[in-house]
Amino acid sequence: MSPRTTHLDKRVAGAMSELSAAAKKGLGDPALAELVMVRASQINACAFCLDMHVDIASKNGESPQRIALLDAWEEAGDLFTERERAALALTEAVTVLTKGFVPDETYEKAALHFDEGELAHLIGLITVINNWNRLMVSRRIEPGGPAW
Fold it and tell me: CB neighbours (10 Å) of residue 113?
C-alpha cells in the first residue's frame, strides 16, 4: 500500500465547506451545482467526490440518464440545457487549464447565461470542487471514507 494520510485539519475542511456552501447559495441552482461538481470530479477521477455528489444529485431529483451521460454532455443532444452546457464547458475549462486561462469564447458563452454574481459563484464552485478533488485524490480517500 502506498503511503498516505487521511488527516485533514478541521479548520481547512471547515473553510472549504464554507466556501462550497457560499458558492452553491450564490449560484442559486442546487441541481446545476451538483452537475458541475460531478463533472469536475469525473475529470479529476475523484471517486470520493463522485460518490458523494452523484448521490446528492440523485436525491435532489437528477435523472440517472443525465448523470450517466454527463461525461458525454457535448454529444448528448438537448438532454442538457444551453445554460447547463455553458456551465459544463466552463467547468471543463477551469478544471483543465492547459493553456493557463479560460478561453474567451467559453467565458463569453457562460456570461450569456449567468449574471455577474452568478458567474462569480459558478467559478467559485468550480474552483472549490477542484480543490476538494485534489484533497481527496492526493490522500487516496475512497468512496464513503473519512473526509477528515
Answer: 17
Q: Could you tell me the end-to-end alpha-carbon distance of the chain, in angstroms, rounded to an integer?
A: 20
**Cα 145 to the center of its chain, rounded Å:** 19
**pLDDT 10s digits, 39-84:** 999 999 999 999 999 999 999 999 999 999 999 999 999 999 999 9
One-letter amino acid at 118 equals E
State the virtual CA torsion across 17, 20, 26, 30 in degrees, nearest 10: -110
Which one-letter amino acid corresponds to residue 16? M
pTM of the full predicted structure? Answer: 0.93
Distances (CA, A) of 100 to 47, 109, 129, 135: 26, 19, 18, 21
CA gap 143, 146 in Å, rounded: 9
Task: Scan for cell 471543463, then name that residue.
Answer: 92
> What is the rounded distance in angstroms from the CA atom of residue 125 to the CA atom of residue 21?
9
